[in-house]
Every structure is written in structure tokens, then in C-alpha cells.
Amino acid sequence: MNRFEYARPATLAEAVAAGAVPGAAYLAAGTNLMDLMKGGVMRPGHLVDISRLPGLDRIERLGDGGVRIGALVRNADLAYDTDFARRFPSVAEALLSGASAQLRNAATAGGNLLQRTRCTYFYDTASACNKRDPGTGCDALGGENRLHAVLGWSEHCIATHPSDFCVPLTALDAVVEVEGPKGRRDIPLENFHLLPGSTPERETVLEHSELITAVRLPAEAARFAANARYLKVRERTSYAFAVVSAAAALRLEGGMVAEARIALGGVALKPWRARAAEAELAGARPEPVTFRRAAEAALADAKPSGDNGFKIELARRIIVRTLTLAAAGTPERMPALPASPFSGAITHA
Amino acid sequence: MSLSITLTINGAERAITLDDPRITLLDLLRERLDLTGTKKGCDRGQCGACTVLVDGRRVNSCLTLALSHDGADILTIEGVAQGATAGEPLHPVQAAFIAHDGFQCGFCTPGQIMSAIGMIQEGQAGNDPERVREAMSGNLCRCGAYVGITEAVLDAQRSMAETEAASGRRNAA
What we know:
The complex is a heterodimer of chains A (349) and B (173).
Chain A: E1 5-7, H1 12-19, E2 24-27, H2 33-38, E3 46-49, E4 59-61, E5 67-70, H3 75-79, H4 82-87, H5 89-96, H6 101-106, H7 109-114, H8 120-123, H9 166-171, E6 175-180, E7 183-188, E8 211-217, E9 228-234, E10 242-253, E11 256-265, E12 272-273, H10 275-281, H11 288-298, H12 310-328
Parallel strand pairs in A: 1-3, 2-3
Antiparallel strand pairs in A: 4-5, 5-8, 6-7, 6-8, 9-10, 10-11, 11-12
Helix pairs in contact in A: 10-11, 11-12
Chain B: E1 4-9, E2 12-17, H1 25-32, E3 51-54, E4 57-60, E5 73-75, H2 92-99, H3 109-122, H4 129-135, H5 146-172
Parallel strand pairs in B: 1-5
Antiparallel strand pairs in B: 1-2, 3-4, 3-5
Helix pairs in contact in B: 2-5
């Protein structure tokens, strides 16, 4: 790990000022940053420890029925907050399908959005990686790439965004609250992460020293509570990143889909909102043929970036299955294996 | 900024001066305080051997800077049997790991036990073996003693609940 200056500012304003120093990085739980620094992938000269900043560790129910999740709320605390999990069950299920209990006890909401890809070539400093060292090339192209992107990738980068949490958040129109040198601004989560294009080193729309202070879910997001699920296919039952995952949320009225929300994880460098699939479902009967049509629409633009063509059909099937589960109704209790197709608590139509 | 911190470790308050901000909580415990019960397996948050309780919550001590925890209460494997009785010198989770053969080489065991203590306090798994396995998935055992580990965790949770219920009855009487 490189040497760094360590600072623990007492206020948000001091933190944003300290973060403006060139080469500074914010440190919250550090569950990803410490790993990256140990591997020499990130080498910040200054660490600004924001983990004690006051007021950012609260889950606030807003007057209009929405919720504000402070950036420092720990994954486990959010997932096990009874009121939150009842109103936004797919978000709780996604959180509990991610990482391990130890990591969920530490990792924060804001940090989850800013975690880096788990592309092995990004982590291996002996490999070429345009994201880590712009202009050096991409060894994932033509390498071991069966887990890489099938949507939104470029010849400069085929990595995926690893978050589970961000997938239902994107489906439910979450908004990111940010504090920076020029003041506060709101960014829709759907527009927060950037596709790689020719600048894969730029991962989000955040400017240097801008700091996430909260993630907000609108009141409308709670209207899907009765029919909202997250499903994640991974290479082992627990404690693994998604090969493909999907969040599906339905608002059913009179046996028809009044409104649908779908997002995918593990397929692109950002949580992937599938609006074309949502349009297929709106006003339709919630049945397999409709779900398959939605799945086809969601993957219409997909193409393999290497040895990963299987992920396209896998993603279609995961969409159908997640929609089937959502239509069957959110379970009263979280499955023993959250978001897992092997969970005994999941019933299949 | 001063690199002096205060930690309560296994019940004892310690004033600690760090000469380098890079020291993780794990390295502080092992290399500076001679508390080598907490193990360094992968050092990257993947194996769980370094699990300790920070303010009552199980975390990976390899992935966190010691400096970030100024003022925190740390419980390591060396501290769990404190307060045990003369007749049973071990923490119930330790005793259950022995009774159920929940290890072979023993390297992952301190992390497994700390994780199990944290899991039982979290109270989310109940007596469902599947939920216990899921809740313990952050602790790898390369000897593959998982069957015994799951039995040990379930047994310890049961015995701790019974002890608590008995003490509740005594207090009510």
C-alpha cells in the first residue's frame, strides 16, 4: 500500500474542502478501497476519512412518503430496517444477496455506488487496463471474459458494475444527493454511472471532491412493495458477485400490469434500466408470454464482448423468472438465501 | 494529525500511538499488541479469518484502518472466554466447536467463532441451518469442516438462549 496523509474532518464542509486536494480519496468503510490500495490499483496520496461525519448514518422517512438513506448507513442496517424492508423489499433482498455478513456490517450505502468493477484485469496491475491506466489497452478483450459486459461496452472497456444494491435502486428511480465545492445537487441514479466509451477511467458524473451524502427513493417506489423481487445468478450460492441479476417490480391492477420496473446487474458498466421491457409490460397481462417479450426487448441491443454470449440468453431467462416471482408476490419473510434461485422459499409458477 | 488513538480491546482501554497510518486493525492486533489469535488469511476480505467484533458487530479487520476506529470497543478471540465460569472456562461457541468437531487444522476457527458470536447477536438466522450457512458464508474453511461448524453454531445459539432464559427466570423469581 502506498503512503498517504490521513485526515478525519469533523464536518461535511471540511470534508469537501479536504477532498479537493489533488490525489485525495474519501474513505468510508474502505471495504473496496483498502483492497484496491493493497493491490496497488489505487494509490491516493490523501485519505479523507468521512466515516464519522455527523448526520449521514440515518434512514429518514420523508414527509411525502419517500425515504432518504444517509451515505454512511451500513448495508446490514438498511436491509434489516423493518420499515424500509417492508416498503422496498427488492432493495433489502439485493443488499442481503451481496458480499458477506461481515462486509455488510461495514460497507456503506454511498460506498456501494462508488465501488469499482471486479474485472480481474483491472485488479491485476501487470495487465493492460484502460480504466486503471488510460491508453494502455484492455487485456480483458480476448482474455478470460465470460463474466464481462454484453450491453453498453466499448472496445476500450468491457467490465461490469458489480453492485446488487444499485440494481433495484435504478429500477425504482433513486436519486443521489451530492455535496461539492459548488454546493448541493441531485443526480438520478440512472444517470450517475457512465458507460465506458473512450474514457473508461471516468466512472461517474461526480466531479473531484464531490461527496455522496444520501440516496433518496421517491414515495412512488413504495407502491411496488407487494410485487418486487431481486434475483441473482452467481457461481456459488452465497458470497459471490452476480453473473447476471435482475430487479423486477410490478404494480398490478385488476389482474393487469399497470406499471413495471426492470433493471439488470452484471451485464454492463452501470446498473442497466430496461425501459423497453417495461413498455412491453405496461397494460399487459402478467403471464409467461408477456414476460418473454419483455425479456427479448431488454436484450435487443446486447452483443457478446467475448466468450460471454451465454449471458444474453441467461439474462432473458432471469428477467422472465424475476417477473414471475414478482407477479407471485413479495414473500412475507426474506428467503433463507436472499435473491438465490436455490432458495427454498422461492416458489415457481 | 496525531496518530494517537484509544481502543478498548477485550475490556481493557489501550492508548496506542501509530507510526504509520497504513496499519490495519488486523496488523495492529497481531503485530503491535501480540494478539495473534486473530488470523491473517487472505488479507483482502475474502476469507473471514480476521473477523473481530467492533462495537459489537462482526467485521473483517484486514480491510479497515486502525485509525478509523479511535474510541471503538474491539472484541477478539482472546477476550471471548472472559467471564466464563470455573466449571466451563470457554465461551459457549468455543465449547460447541469442540463438541461438534467444527474444525480440522484450526486456522479459520478464531474467525469462525467471532463470526458466529456476531451472527447470534444479530439474531437473523433463527434455527434454520440454511440461514446459518448463508450468514456464515463470509468465513471460509479450507479443511471443509462446514457440517460441524453449522451444527456448532446452531447448538451454541440454542444453549445461549437457554442460559439467557434461565437467568431471566432467576431474575424474575
